[in-house]
Amino acid sequence: MADLSEQLDEMLQEIGVVVNLTIEEREEITQAGADVLAKNLKQATKDAGHYNANRKIGKIKHLADSVEIGKLVGTVSDGSNAVGFTKSDKQGINHARLAHWLNDGTRRITKDGKIVNVPGDSFMDNARDKSQKEVLEAQSKVLKKIQEKKRGSS
């Protein structure tokens, strides 16, 4: 029979195989959550009234159609994924800025020079908050599959 030290080393090695995730595995997990959040953010954008189904698309996309998933520019690849609106499309429209104005509110100056506060409706914040459980469940399923696969190969 192996001594306690050998048993602990063996146990740690077995756990390490299951717990230590590669960047690719982390990306797979966060992609599952990002897919859920992107779907919910698109729907929240439509539900908040920031979508006109009768509008001709032309060169400028609907705000809800500009939701994207990807890595943040200038960051190190660590397995994370970001969800948000396009920063700039071919026509130079910054959907991310427009979405933040709608979410957070803004100020504008009227023709007669008065400053008017335009309140936000927090549609992005609400979508993110309401999606937390569903995002975690999606990520948990993928993590469980990865761990089961690793346990089988160890």
Report on this structure.
The protein has 154 residues and is mainly alpha-helical. The chain contains 4 helices and 4 strands. The chain has helices spanning 4-19, 23-47, 95-104, 123-153, and strands at residues 67-70, 82-85, 105-109, 115-119. It has a two-stranded antiparallel ribbon. Strands 3-4 form a two-stranded antiparallel sheet. The longest helix is centred in the C-terminal third of the chain and has 31 residues, at 123-153. The radius of gyration is 22 Å and the shape is elongated. It starts with a helix and ends with a helix. The mean pLDDT is 86.
Strand % is 5-15%
Main beta-sheet annotation:
2 strands, antiparallel
Mean of pLDDT: 86
Count, helices: 4
Order of helices and strands: HHEEHEEH
How far apart, in Å, are the first and last alpha carbons?
21 Å
Supply the key terms.
mainly alpha, 53% helix, single chain, two-stranded antiparallel sheet, 154 residues, two-stranded antiparallel ribbon, 4 strands
Please provide a brief summary of the model.
Helix content is 53%, strand content 12%.
Helices and strands in order:
Layout: H1 4-19, H2 23-47, E1 67-70, E2 82-85, H3 95-104, E3 105-109, E4 115-119, H4 123-153
Helix pairs in contact: 1-4, 2-4
